[in-house]
Write a structure and sequence with these properties.
By secondary structure, the chain is of the alpha/beta class. It folds into 2 domains: 116 residues, Rossmann fold; 146 residues, 3-Layer(aba) Sandwich (Rossmann fold), CATH 3.40.50.261. It has a 7-stranded mixed β-sheet, with helices on both faces. Strands 9-8-11-10-12-13-14 form a 7-stranded mixed β-sheet, sandwiched between helices. Strand 8 and strand 9 form a beta hairpin. Helix 5 crosses helix 9, helix 6 packs parallel to helix 7 and helix 7 packs parallel to helix 8.
Length: 294
């Protein structure tokens, strides 16, 4: 089992023929991802050879789905064109769209998020500004390094790409069922709560690690959800304990306002919900080990 992505997922790459798209398509293929096509209207009808694998390029997402049965799209589309690319994926009703692109205008993200809602949420959006998701040993949709962990029983959901990688590496000897990087922008598709619900329902996930960061109230809302709906042990980490209040940090979403939004407030809310919270990623990994050891 896995959440959102498995060995049977058929993946297309919007923006595959660009430099970044090509680089990561190659890496995803090396991780065993079943990439069935790329999308570029200007190169429709051609194909790309990546280490001996011929990948067809389609003019639209709809055509790619029709010809290949694709059910996942990974988007490496420049910020100015990202909204149109996501809307195209939503119109084609692809079940999962993984938006890697950084620097998309918040207005554009809000627009395509609302558009997905208006279309009945047939397309799950992960991101934007995220590393994607990986089910180790099965499939990798995004830019998470595939060689830093192995299949296992931990589920990971994280706002931060870098901390996703660190946590996977810290717990590499135990391994992960799936790891999802949801992104740290103010408007994102899949939330901590969505991933927590999926891991709670996944019989192959025994423990959940949740990584948040200062700013907003997503972690407080996740804590409330955990208290009411999650029976599996959850370990948390909140980036930004040393940040000065009111300071805007790296992610656009990390703005501290009042007491909600601070690392201390988030830690308090999570611990009240029964989540063990580490002060550092390494301490968080140690807590996960202790809980799994029983």
């Amino acid at each position: 089992m896995a959440i959102f992505l498995d060995k049977d997922s058929k993946v297309i790459v919007q923006g595959m023929t660009g430099a970044t798209g090509m680089k990561h398509t190659k890496l995803m293929l090396a991780d065993g991802t079943n990439i069935v096509g790329g999308v570029n209207p200007r190169k429709a009808g051609t194909s790309v050879d990546i280490d001996g694998t011929e990948i067809p390029v389609f003019g639209t997402v709809a055509e790619a789905i029709e010809k290949t049965g694709a059910n996942v799209s990974v988007l490496f589309v420049p910020p100015a064109f990202a909204k149109a690319a996501v809307v195209e994926a939503i119109d084609a009703e692809i079940p999962l769209a993984v938006v890697i692109t950084e620097g998309i205008a918040v207005h554009d993200s809000a627009a395509f998020w609302a558009y997905a809602q208006s279309k009945g949420n047939k397309t799950r959006i992960i991101g934007p500004n995220c590393p994607g998701l990986i089910t180790p040993g099965q499939s990798n949709a995004g830019i998470i390094p595939g060689d830093i962990t192995k299949p296992g029983r931990i589920g990971l959901v994280s706002k931060s790409g870098t901390l996703t990688y660190q946590m996977m590496y810290e717990l590499r000897d135990i391994g992960f069922s799936s790891a999802v990087g949801i992104g740290g922008d103010p408007v994102i598709g899949t939330t901590h709560i969505d991933a927590l619900a999926a891991f709670e329902a996944d019989p192959d996930t025994d423990l959940i690690v949740m990584i948040g960061e200062i700013g907003g109230d997503a972690e407080e809302r996740a804590a409330d959800f955990i208290a009411k709906n999650v029976t599996k042990p959850v370990v948390g980490y909140v980036a930004g304990f040393t940040a000065p209040e009111g300071k805007t940090m790296g992610h656009a979403g990390a703005i501290v306002s009042g007491s909600s939004g601070t690392a201390a407030a988030k830690k308090e809310a999570l611990e009240a919900a029964g989540v063990k919270v580490g002060k550092t990623p390494t301490e968080t990994a140690k807590l996960a080990r202790e809980l799994l050891a029983g």
